Amino acid sequence: MAEITLKGLAHSYVAAPRGAEDYAIREMDHVWQQGGAYALLGPSGCGKSTLLNIISGLLSPSRGEVLFDGQTVNDLPPEARNIAQVFQFPVVYDTMTVRDNLAFPLRNVGASEAHVAERVKEVAEVLELTDQLGRKAKNLTADEKQKVSMGRGLVRDDVSAILFDEPLTVIDPQLKWKLRRKLKEIHKRFAITMVYVTHDQLEASTFADKIAVMYEGQVVQFGTPSELFETPNHTFVGYFIGSPGMNFLDVAVRDGRVMAGEIPLPVSEALCAAVAEAETTNVKLGIRPEFVEVHDAPVEGGMQARVEHIQDLGTYSIIDLRLGDMPLKARIDEDQPPPGEIAYLRFPGERVGLYVDEFRVEVQA
Ligand code: ADP
Ligand code: MG
């Protein structure tokens, strides 16, 4: 078991990379602590698989170091790194039985047959494969094969870490939910470092204690699900986490006031000063739909907005608004009466984030 440190890591698949856009992994540092249950969350193509393959040693990074418990492993081949990896699509030996498939990683490292039998039994029970142990893998369904594939990843209890690369993609939704619970159980029982790759925020937050959000080859935030929700560090996190994502308004200071287009925003002096000081025109104010206060009559400091659409989702509604010419979403609970054609909005100071060149800057509310 190990703490995994990535130091100054960068990777390009291009022989002579020119700019940042030629890098699948852009210069990054990161630590996965021993025993954590982590998710690596990001859209397709952001570099998740590349990162896992660098950790497991299937891929050698262009620059930087991979350390296990402080020791560099860059020169170690995958076998010597003691990492189990489960891929998106099943990796099983068709001609072997389920039992032999599960036993394979253990026999490979010379485990005693008594230990093999014990672990195979245990893993098969967890994954509900006990009845299938005698069957040839080629006769299994895609779901069952992927369960075997996961079992092969879980069967060794002496690995440094287990890496899962979108392992539930081919599994049907019902079973998916169940397997994710099981993985969580297994994690609790064995305290092995687990990194679970997904592009699904729900999957990430049900599995992981801490989520690394990846965007364009970098981890832009590493935090608990509630940290990602409450204080997104990067506009991408705001937009990607939450449903719908965070609202972002382009802002600038004019005549001493923070303006979103033609609309003056009633915000704190500190925020106004921070916007004025920014050395770029890429300045955005972020607020989550949940935190936009919606009133159906004028209120002090309220900004008038047009109500374009209200979507009733049972316990809450999503309101599409237009503030000046900018679209904005708000979420209200079912017990709040929906506004008419005009709504009056307030942004509570402590719920507003300021983003300069896409990264959040701290401002006193
Ligand atoms: P993810 O797993 O997040 O979908 P990947 O790590 O697979 O992302 O890919 C990151 C980027 O690297 C993408 O732009 C992808 O096209 C590119 N890439 C991935 N694998 C290769 C490869 N073997 N050769 C060249 N480019 C690759
Ligand atoms: Mg991938």
UniProtKB/TrEMBL annotation:
Q: Which UniProt keywords apply?
A: ATP-binding, Cell membrane, Membrane, Nucleotide-binding, Transport
* Gene Ontology molecular function terms on file: ABC-type ferric iron transporter activity; ATP binding; ATP hydrolysis activity
Q: Name one Pfam family in it.
A: OB_MalK
Alphabetized SUPFAM superfamilies for the sequence: MOP-like, P-loop containing nucleoside triphosphate hydrolases
A GO cellular component term found in this entry reads: ATP-binding cassette (ABC) transporter complex, substrate-binding subunit-containing
**Occurrences of domain ABC transporter (ranges):** 4-241
For whether the record's keyword set contains Membrane, the answer is: yes
Q: Which InterPro entries match?
A: AAA+_ATPase, ABC_transporter-like_ATP-bd, ABC_transpr_FbpC, ABC_transpr_MalK/UgpC-like, Mo/tungstate-bd_C_term_dom, NA-bd_OB-fold, OB_MalK-like, P-loop_NTPase
What is the name of the protein in this document?
ABC transporter ATP-binding protein
Organism source for this protein? Halomonas elongata (strain ATCC 33173 / DSM 2581 / NBRC 15536 / NCIMB 2198 / 1H9)
